[in-house]
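INPUT
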Amino acid sequence: GAGVSQSPRYKVAKRGQDVALRCDPISGHVSLFWYQQALGQGPEFLTYFQNEAQLDKSGLPSDRFFAERPEGSVSTLKIQRTQQEDSAVYLCASSAGTGHGWDNSPLHFGNGTRLTVT
Amino acid sequence: AQSVTQLGSHVSVSEGALVLLRCNYSSSVPPYLFWYVQYPNQGLQLLLKYTTGATLVKGINGFEAEFKKSETSFHLTKPSAHMSDAAEYFCAMRSYIPTFGRGTSLIVHP
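OUTPUT
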């Protein structure tokens, strides 16, 4: 079956613009995660959904970052008034498990969206 | 606090040589541990995982890892490196939310 799909693959935004990044998880996967990966670094947790419920958003760096998954499938990560420090690769991952706590389901990642803020 | 530490941001080996990528974790309870590989401009792919049971775990592409509770380690090994193994490798832990190490870049010389 199809894997996790993210769009766009590349996004260039001028400082101050708003951007929206889309994630289409594997069909039927309950859990969906967003990560931010800076150059040469590991993925840093941003937020987590279980179906349509956003259960953890502790990793969102500021109130300019907002994520939603209204129907429990496709998710959108929105960044308002982008800043240069927002430049990174944004990774989406889904898993079949419930996500929180003692869940040993591996994450399935998309290829990411590379955001460059000029 | 839960954390994953990967020792060495870069590891360089010759083709055919042993690969050893180090990972140590910190967790108040036994975690689930994973290794992922990332090729340029791609997402992360699962190599192997440890949950419970046998402490030596075999994964794809000839990689394996051994969970050592006494050393809080989960090092990744491969007996003989291939040029196609050159990539970024991430150790990860799931005890609350999935937490990743900073990654180790594996360089393979011909």
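end of record. The mean pLDDT of chain B is 93.
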